[in-house]
Amino acid sequence: MKTLKSALVVSALVAMPVAHADVLGFGASIGYWDSDLSGKAAKGSDRVNVENDLDLSNNTEANLSAYLEHPIPLLPNVRLSYLHIDQSGSGELGTGFDSIPGGVPVDSSLDWRQTDLTLYYEVLDNWVNLDLGLTARDLDAELEVTDTTGLYPVSRTEVSAVLPMLYAAGRFDLPLTGVSAGITGNIISYDGDSVYDYDIYGQYVFAGVQLRAGYREMAVDYEDGDERLDIDVGGPFASVGFSF
User: Fold this and answer.
1) 82/66 Cα distance (integer angstroms)
2) Is the C or the N end of the chain the one with fewer CB within 10 Å?
């Protein structure tokens, strides 16, 4: 029965009517994200709070995206995006972490890079828009903690993975105004690990120029060997782009 239900779901997805662009379309944008960071990092049984112990400061992160849509039926549209989070801070460890004992002043930095390749279909394409697809996310993050006395080795916590994620994007257009509102999201949860990333925005388009502003939040709870990052990043963003 479970196999039959799965087959019916797959058949329904395959049979789902898919809209496609009448002409070839391309767009690109650059955005700035004023993000706050919270959460924990772990190496084995040692844990550190990135906000309270390391005092990692908020920062303005740049992100890039581009998409290609085409009129060829059954072939998915393509979206690429890139995000770089670079945050640093100075704090004091409340408890020992890795080889650094508690009570030691430390400098820290987080270097987070991710590239998304999304293949998607336009399920609806009128004043209500809906895209559904899959994202492959190449995630590479490193947290470095250095004690300011120089007495202890530098601690590095690294997570690297390529994650398959479900992708959905919905948008409501107010006809004849260029004004719209929407939400975009990626998500995966498997075997104790989970990643989600969403943004809610308002948008204005004129003469092919796209102005967008909203709120974005990303949460990663991922274990790579004995190293783990459980981090939330969130804050307002703004972007400018073009399409033709």
Assistant:
1) 9
2) N
Burial 56-88 (b: 16+ CB within 10 A, else e): beebebebbbebebeeeeeebbebebebebebe
Structural domain spans, the chain: 19-243
- Where do runs of H (alpha helix) occur along 85-220? none
Supply the pLDDT for residue 9. 37
- Reference 222, options 157, 144, 151; nearest CA is 157
Q: What percent of the chain has pLDDT over 90?
A: 66
**Measured between alpha carbons, how far apart are the two ends of the chain, in Å?**
48
Under 8 Å CB-to-CB from 32, ≥6 apart: which residues? 60, 61, 62, 63, 237, 238, 239
Tell me the pLDDT band of 7, cut-offs 50, 70 and 90.
Answer: very low
CA distances to 16, 114, 218 from 159, in Å: 37, 11, 16
* pLDDT for residue 187 is more than 90: yes
What angle is formed at CA 215 by the lines to CA 210 and CA 221, rounded to 5 degrees?
A: 125
Instruction: Fill in the amino acid letter for 186.
Output: N
How confident is the model over 112-168, as pLDDT tens digits? 999 999 999 999 988 999 999 999 999 999 999 999 988 899 999 998 999 999 999
CATH topology of domain 19-243: Lipocalin (2.40.128)
Tell me which amino acid residue 37 is.
L
pLDDT, residue 4, reads: 34
**What three-state secondary structure class fits 12?**
helix
